[in-house]
Design brief:
single chain, about 190 residues, alpha/beta, Rossmann fold, 9 helices, 5 strands
């Protein structure tokens, strides 16, 4: 029987990691797109070999690691490179995630930060939106990333507005309070089978 898929998404600083950490502590399978991306971008992985072939070896550092800032600059200055990178990486990440989903039993949580922005359908049975007030998200992201307010606001403005995300799901996990309050919210949705 196929695993039930619950997508978890939310903007920067919303607290997705706190949610997924708690779910893991309760014994649930959580497949995190960011973790899978890190697997896919290790030196020697198939997607990295394809990127080298399509774009060139200059996007790698001497130790074989991906030169992320350089690649980001190239992607945002050249739509063809952006398309190529997205095609290669997204296909590989999707294949890796689907393999992990197929191996799971019961309910599997898919942590995908840009779930609503993604053009791919993940066929989720439900989507949980983790959110918090903008000032809370801002202060969390600044503290976590050591970034200034302007940089975090720029990243926030590049994401889909919270109101639009709310309109796309009926399950909203407000994360403005304590961890105990967050965990109580999560437990409520788990108990409801949502």
């Amino acid at each position: 029987m196929a695993a039930k898929r619950i997508g978890i998404t939310g903007g920067i600083g919303a607290g997705k990691s706190a949610v997924t950490d708690y779910l893991r502590s309760k014994g649930f399978v959580v497949i995190d797109a960011d973790e899978v991306q890190r697997e896919a971008t290790r030196p020697g992985e198939i997607a990295m070999l394809q990127l080298a072939e399509e774009i060139g070896d200059d996007i790698f550092l001497e130790d074989g690691e991906l030169n992320r800032p350089m690649l980001a600059d190239l992607m945002f200055s050249d739509p063809d490179i952006l398309f190529t990178v997205n095609l290669i990486l997204h296909s590989d990440i999707r294949a890796r995630m689907e393999k992990k989903i197929a191996a799971a039993e019961g309910t599997v949580f898919l942590s995908i930060p840009l779930l609503f922005e993604s053009k791919e359908r993940w066929d989720c049975d439900a989507v949980w939106l983790v959110t918090a007030d903008e000032d809370v998200r801002l202060s969390r992201a600044m503290a976590r990333d050591g970034a200034d307010e302007e940089a975090v606001r720029a990243r926030m403005s590049a994401q889909m507005p919270e109101e639009e995300k709310r309109a796309l799901t009926g399950i909203v996990i407000e994360n403005n309070g304590t961890l105990a309050q967050l965990y109580a919210n999560i437990d409520k949705f788990i108990a409801q089978g949502r």
